[in-house]
Amino acid sequence: MRIMEAIPHRYPFLLIDRMVDVELGQSAVGVKNVSVNEPFFQGHFPARPVMPGVLIIEAMAQTAATLVVLTLGPAFEGKLVYFMTIENAKFRRPVSPGDQLRIHVVKERQRANVWKFRGVARIDDVSVAEATFSAMIMD
């Protein structure tokens, strides 16, 4: 429930289930339990369901946005956060139903309302995707 207070995303686009290891202003780990019931699996791909890479990057962004709001406090709850850049995205192996993504984000820098993060999504401590991205919090 705290994630939904922090960011405006809702089903079917809320892509993190839990936040752990939160170090305010620095880093956090988001957890996504990937279920066969995810709506994107109906078309991506019915015979071999694979979580789209762009949604893994979105889960990184949601983890980072939740960290930002937890850091900045209640005045920032529910604010929109827009991608500004996505750099060096790499996808190392498919993510399938039954996997648990642990999405590690670390703040690289922050200037005014622009934050830059490095994200790595892992399954069982094996990197499946990574990217550097920046986003802007809108009033």
Total strands = 6
Series of H and E elements: HEEHEEEE
Structural class, judged by helices and strands?
Answer: alpha+beta
Q: Strands of the largest sheet, in order across it?
A: 1-2-4-5-6-3
Count of alpha and pi helical runs:
2
Share of helix among residues? 10-25%
Average pLDDT rating: 96
Rg is 14 Å
Distance between the termini: 22 Å
Share of β-strand residues:
35-45%
Instruction: Extract low-pLDDT stretches.
Output: none
Major sheet? 6 strands, antiparallel
Tertiary shape: globular
Function: Involved in unsaturated fatty acids biosynthesis. Catalyzes the dehydration of short chain beta-hydroxyacyl-ACPs and long chain saturated and unsaturated beta-hydroxyacyl-ACPs.
GO molecular function: (3R)-hydroxyacyl-[acyl-carrier-protein] dehydratase activity
EC number: 4.2.1.59
Pfam family, one: FabA
Account of the 3D structure:
It is found in: Cytoplasm. Its EC number is 4.2.1.59. The chain has helices at about 1-5, 55-70, and strands spanning about 20-25, 25-35, 80-90, 100-110, 115-125, 125-135. By secondary structure, the protein is of the alpha+beta class. The longest helix has 20 residues, at about 55-70. The radius of gyration is 14 Å and the shape is globular. It starts with a helix and ends with a strand.
In terms of topology, how is this protein built?
Elements: H1 2-6, E1 18-23, E2 27-33, H2 53-72, E3 81-91, E4 100-111, E5 114-123, E6 126-137
Brief digest:
It is built from two helices and six strands.
